Amino acid sequence: MMKREQLTRYLDELLESARFKDYCPNGLQVEGRADVQHLVAGVTASQALVDAAIARGADTLLVHHGWFWRSEDGRVTGFRKARMQALLKHDINLIGYHLPLDGHVEFGNNAQLAKRLGWTVEGRFGEQDLGWHGRTSALTTLFDLTRQVASQLQREPQVIGEAGKPVSRIAWCSGGAQGIFEQAIATGVDVYLSGEISEQNVHLARESGVAYMAAGHHATERYGVQALAAHLAARFGIKCEFVDIENPV
Predict the structure, then answer these.
(1) How many Å apart are CA 231 and CA 176, to the nearest integer?
(2) Domains (ranges, CATH) in the chain?
């Protein structure tokens, strides 16, 4: 068991949340019980994940996609009321880290993607250094890289590029990072992997010769919060479990 303030202070410092300019508040978003003994981790604080935390008797919910996004309607009505009401009724803390959990050198989504796929990290790029670039474990083809990613993420990526294209240099950024594709190209890579793809990315991939792999927003952002929860369990001895709410994108 640990105190809520102790946990949030530790996470704020570990993930360096203060240095990120983000689209939502990072850290404690909804206050619940003062003592943390049982934490449920997940990608997004949806109603389904809130219900899963309640069913498991958790006192804390740790997520990558929390609440109170800058572009959203701030009124607590409809589905927002239902989510909030469920958390407050069961006195559950909601803790969320968005960009800090993308960029962390060990527990971040991008670091965990590289670890699971065997990529060597050589540098960072893009706004707030959120994009990563490096090399695959060996010279391969776009087809074989696609098969590897599909096997690891359990989701078939959407790929723009020739299947037989040789690939060794790769850039990646989890989630909705299609907007930094041009910056990824500038790093001299053969392929760029992100969670999502936009219409204009197709043309840029064809014209630049750099392949684009859209591997899924949810699919590419499952591993950071899992790694972070496992770290908390090992370091502090609190019960931590990851709940994956199925999401096709």
Answers:
(1) 26
(2) 2-97+222-242 (3.40.1390.30), 103-217 (3.40.1390.30)
Candidates 91, 96, 11; CA nearest to 58 is 91
Determine the Cα–Cα distance for residues 167 and 219; give it in Å rounded to an integer: 22
Close Cβ partners of 44 (under 8 Å, ≥ 6 residues apart): 63, 64, 65, 218, 245, 247
Amino acid 106 reads: E
Average pLDDT, integer, range 76-90: 98
How much is the mean pLDDT over the chain?
Answer: 97
* Residue of 231, 226, 220, 6 lying closest to 113 (CA atoms): 220
The pLDDT value given to residue 96: 98
Average pLDDT for 165-188: 98
36, 82 contact by CB (below 8 A): no
The helix/strand/coil state of 24 is: coil
Helices (H), 104-189: 109-117, 142-153, 181-186
Q: Specify the pLDDT at position 21.
A: 97
CA distances to 10, 126, 159, 160, 218 from 224, in Å: 16, 20, 24, 26, 11
105-114 burial string, b = 16+ CB within 10 Å, else e?
eebbbbbbbb
The pLDDT, as a whole number, for residue 229 is: 98
